[in-house]
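ok trying again, last paste got cut off:
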Amino acid sequence: MTRDDFLFILETTRYFEFTCDNQKYITRIEKDENGNLVYLFGIEYEEARHFNSFTHLMADGRCGNHYLKDVIYDLKR
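nice, full thing came through this time. structure:
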């Protein structure tokens, strides 16, 4: 999956889950109290990290020892 595919899925469904390093990760988009989009990302059933932009999510999101921006190319829709 490309970065653009991943963004499209998030923007249209607001939710995406996948497995990485035997952990289930959840990514979703919500709105904060000011109406701004917030990207939430983390391991299922744990507190998600909040990212203020898709670029920030791609730059700092991690799946175990891997950056999300590197992992998404191995993901399937």
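cool. The chain is about 30% helix and 40% strand. The two ends are 7 Å apart (CA to CA).
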